[in-house]
Amino acid sequence: MLKLYGFWRSLATCRVRIALHLKGIAFEETSINLMKGEQHAESYKAVNPQAVVPALVIDDDAPLFQSMAILEYLEEAHPQPPLMPPDPRGRARVRGIAQIVVADTHPLMVPRVREYLEKEFGLDEPTRNRWIGHWGLKGLQAVEAQLVKDSETARYCHGSRPTLADVCVVSQVFGAQLFGLDTSSVPTVMRIFGECMKLEAFEKSQPLKQPGAPAKGTH
Ligand SMILES: N[C@@H](CCC(=O)N[C@@H](CS)C(=O)NCC(=O)O)C(=O)O
User: Fold this and answer.
1) What predicted TM-score, i.e. pTM, was given to this entire model?
2) Residue 14 above 80 pLDDT?
């Protein structure tokens, strides 16, 4: 049984959770409570010295870390159903969309950045939320611009089957919802989000459906 270290509201964990469900891979999830700082416990840093989730343990081997690396591993080790297009150009596009989220958007919103803004610069919560709103929407708007201009955009971000682009974009929409962002400026993203949410793998992976999540959205 695969062991996923995660947290209910972690967007990076959510990406891995969605991919595991899409591929029908059984796993058990261990919660590392980021709100209580459990990521900094020595016992967890033995799993992932970066003190972040997710980490994925397979067959008691060294844990895999970084959601994008884990997603690519799952795709290579469990090719069915494919979450990447067959052609190199298509794969580059899917990776590009995914990386707008994973490399350029989500890192600006994570707890350690929010804590640093608070402790080093004295920014209060409304100001920190403006920061998050700004970068969270910029990222989704960058995805929207890519989706709108390319004829490969269809039911999903790339064609008629979900890909790693959808996995990443949906995780970021969950983040926008947790922070109460107005997503009306990204209609294509939200249309595709709606399509993905018709699939059980996406629906049951959402933050607010995980053990420990509050009944109502909160960040
Ligand atoms: N680039 C990493 C991001 C990992 C990450 O920052 N995870 C967040 C939760 S989504 C975390 O554990 N944060 C702990 C902290 O910031 O202290 C990935 O995609 O796996």
Assistant:
1) 0.97
2) yes
